[in-house]
Amino acid sequence: MLTDMADELRAVLFDFDGTLGYYKPTHLELYVTAAAAHGVTADLEALRTAVDAGWKPWETQYGVDHSAHSGSEAAFGAIRALLHLGRYESAGVQGDAAVMQAIADDLVLLEADPKHFALYEDTVPALERVRAAGLRSYIVSNHIWRLPEAIDALGLGALVDGVLTSARVGYRKPHPEIFRQAAMMAGEDASNLLYVGDNVAHDVRGAEAAGMRAVLIDRAAAASPASRREASADMVVVHSLMEVPLW
After folding, report:
1. In a 10 Å sphere around its CB, with 0-12 CB exposed, 13-18 middle and 19+ buried, how is residue 156 labelled?
2. CATH topology (fold) of 11-20+120-243
3. Is 1.10.150 the CATH number for 23-115?
4. Which among 178, 161, 143 is positioned nearest to 55, based on CA atoms?
């Protein structure tokens, strides 16, 4: 909520998926592709209902905490594969254990390939707008280990001042720790930061609970129906990154 602007805005933090960019093909379509490469059929609609099941083993009252497995890319890759296996199982995808493990391992590599990422048309202009306003930009996202490398491959490295991915931090939004570390990365008090994301619970409420200002971006097709239902009258909602208030 942007009702108190007494504290000077110093930096804008952006979510990635659904905010700055997206998977192309979609992330769930990569699940289907990885399975098909091993002769296993995965139903896309069944996978949609299984997305939330993946992180349940690491869920806490504050949010997902997988910090014990974020000491290295290999350690995180191992639990990422477990996450994928859990989603496949919840979606009713069946196969030999060794084959399913190979599928999950392949998916870890597929989802890290920069060629599967795309940017929204307003992403670069919006980041340039933030820079022109004398503010810094950071990306803080629930994402894969190699998100910083993907950001560079997408040509955004020169437009952002830092990238923080939950894979390396060990906590997923809305856990307060990822927002605390984001503020540390920016070198600012939370009250001087604005967070922009497409999920009400993870992005807007999580950022506000951490003392940041927050804006919901609803791209109609990108913001989930659940997020649109959860949006309240006191929430600042924009439909393009170029509409984000920079004050």
Report:
1. buried
2. Rossmann fold (3.40.50)
3. yes
4. 143
